[in-house]
Amino acid sequence: MNESKRVEIAWPDLGITVRADLDRRNPALAQCLWDALPYRSLQGHALVAGYHLYHVAPAHSLLYTPAEYRVDRRTVPDGTLFCSRLQHLGIKYGELTEPMNATPIGQVLEEDIEALVQAGHEVWNSVYTTKKPIIAEVRRAGAPSGHKLPRLPIGDPELNRLVAEVHAETERIWLNPPQELLDLHQGRIPSGAGSYETVLTTLLFVNGETRPLGYSCYGGLVRAALDGMPMPWLRQMTRQLAHTPAEFLGYCGLDTLWDFTQRMLDGLERVDSHEDFISVMAHMALYCNCLGGWNLHLFPWQAGDHLRREPVLA
Q: Boundaries of each Cucumopine synthase C-terminal helical bundle domain copy (predicted)?
């Protein structure tokens, strides 16, 4: 193993650091992560699949870089690292139940697995119970920590200004929860969304719209552009996919997202190259994925603590 491709994943608030070697199973994806280092990100935890950590990595290239090798996540060793088109760096640290094909890029060192498991338990407690954010630091082994969000240029001046604002807002909320989401989760909803003054229902629908907007809409549009879909079709698909969920999220309190979306849609006709289209959509994807990460962290999952899975009899 080339020592230059060893990374350290640290959770300073927990006093835990693990080391991992990037390998050759998916070298292009591993290179995407390597090129993005160092960075910091809000650490998340799987809420359905099992014992799995993940966070958003600030790498636009993860949206479209092809994978060469896939595995069923359930079958690989604990400590396996994955990168995905959802812009996630994931780490398995125990049993997984979801039969999902995933793209491994590396492995946590055997002597660090115990520390990884400890980190996993602490992060679960953070996401499920305490709501105290835990920040992950990912860096090249032996190199200093740091943080940067990539900025892609746009030819059209007005759209370039929009992307600059999206980039700045993403940077502002990357490690700090957006006030709009804090207000929403505390029941401050100016539109009155939430039948019979309920809040949990609105939170549930906001979560259900935000994640696919980043994962499927904007990530999918980036891949469609790279696959050569003609610009008129790309414009039409963007209008069809982005408008309705963003308008609903604006009604629920995410005014900044709705404002960005309207300005992006208004400027679509001025996008005359696939390169500019990809840059705009990539920035919208990263912004939405950041919002989604905070939404998952803030959501009151413990409200369902009385609901527990029952064993299924054969």
A: 160-298
Q: For the chain, how many residues are written?
A: 314
Ramachandran region, residue 253 (left: φ > 0; alpha: ψ -120 to 50; beta: rest): left
Domain ranges across the chain: 3-140, 157-301
At 278 the pLDDT is 97
Cβ(37)–Cβ(66) under 8 Å? no
The residue type of 161 is: R
ω into 38 cis (within 30 of 0): yes
d(CA 256, CA 242): 14
Is pLDDT above 80 for 129? Answer: yes
The CATH code of the domain at 3-140 is 2.40.100.20
Distance CA 2, CA 139 (A): 16
How far is residue 297 from each of residues 127, 128, 176, 234, 284, measured CA to CA in Å?
5, 8, 12, 32, 20
Whose tokens are 């160092």? That residue is 38
Residue 158 to residue 123: CA distance in whole angstroms: 41
Alpha carbon distances (Å) from 307 to 267, 302, 303, 310: 47, 10, 9, 9
Position 133 pLDDT exceeds 50: yes
Tell me, rounded to whole angstroms, the distance of Cα 180 from its chain centroid: 18
Helix (H) or strand (E) holding 162: helix 157-173
Place of tokens 């992950």: 136
Instruction: Summarize pLDDT for 9-30 with one digit per residue, the tens.
Output: 999 999 999 999 999 999 999 9
Question: String of b and e for 56-84 (b: at least 16 CB within 10 Å)?
Answer: bbbbbbbbbbebeeeeebeebebbbbbbb
Which pTM does this prediction carry? 0.96
